């Protein structure tokens, strides 16, 4: 059994697939790899940080500044020194050790220790961070021995810089996604779930959504996010549901419970290099729930979805309208598409096949570095 130190953002109680380190707990050991987790803050301090992030005012802002400038770096240095004294076979860090897109001196420091010990230092890259933060990412890339990227496009980008890189897709635990019979539902819900940073892509669908909802008044639009988006037209009404708090003891992964009312899911994506590098966890959640998905024909969507088999891809506004109309009118097609989507996720993107692939790549990379 090879053991790797994994430097994460969240604490060990994290319950969602977004926290990629923790979804492999109890699974990756089957393939000869074990993780020892080093969260960015102890549990008590992490809760204090979260409270400071949610609150506004001078005091919370000062508190956050102290954490960023002093508490987190000191804690990380102690963790790095502690890990370097233990018998790990390699180290893995998140997109950055401090997660605030600060100057990457921690990675530089850690990289020197890893090279001295002749052990691999892996950087987990969840999206195209090098696009908005080129200088910081270039230094991080030079500090690590390997990069773990989440999309084929991102792998090519990193390898084009002369770096060793392998693919590790965003995995989910299919057991935490219930199977629901939606075939008898009459009043359909067209749903979108995503962060405010995805609102620009959602707002681009305003005209198609108005057209579809006008044709089918029995349908309604439901949006799940941190706060409600603002459409230009007042005629586009929607139901808004805020995200629930992450419960590590829930039988669902984060965000799943809020989507149980969905009948059709929307997965729009901005056309940019940053979006091209993202491996949409929401798309996988939709598919794992057995939802028929209409997605932008771009980036990872086009890589994951097989047109007309596991989902529908749309490029133009007319494509969005036609796809939604077809799904609303054809119950059998809607159900068949959802079933195929869930089967695809279970076969290719569930935590078990992805844990096996990740373990193989970690072990192979560690062997190559020693030879």
Quick take:
With 371 residues, the protein is an alpha/beta fold.
Describe this protein's structure.
The protein is an alpha/beta fold and 371 residues long. The chain has two domains: 191 residues, 3-Layer(aba) Sandwich (Rossmann fold); 175 residues, Rossmann fold, CATH 3.40.50.2000. It contains 14 helices and twelve strands. The strands form two sheets. Strands 2-1-3-4-5-6 form a six-stranded parallel sheet, sandwiched between helices. It is globular. The model has no long low-confidence stretch (mean pLDDT 89).
Write the SSE topology.
Blueprint: E1 2-7, H1 20-23, E2 33-38, H2 43-54, H3 58-85, E3 90-93, H4 105-117, E4 121-125, H5 134-143, E5 146-149, H6 152-159, E6 164-167, E7 189-193, H7 199-203, H8 206-215, E8 220-225, E9 239-242, E10 264-267, H9 273-276, H10 281-288, E11 293-296, H11 299-304, E12 312-314, H12 317-329, H13 331-349, H14 351-370
Parallel strand pairs: 1-2, 1-3, 3-4, 4-5, 5-6, 7-8, 7-10, 8-9, 10-11, 11-12
Helix pairs in contact: 2-3, 3-4, 4-5, 8-12
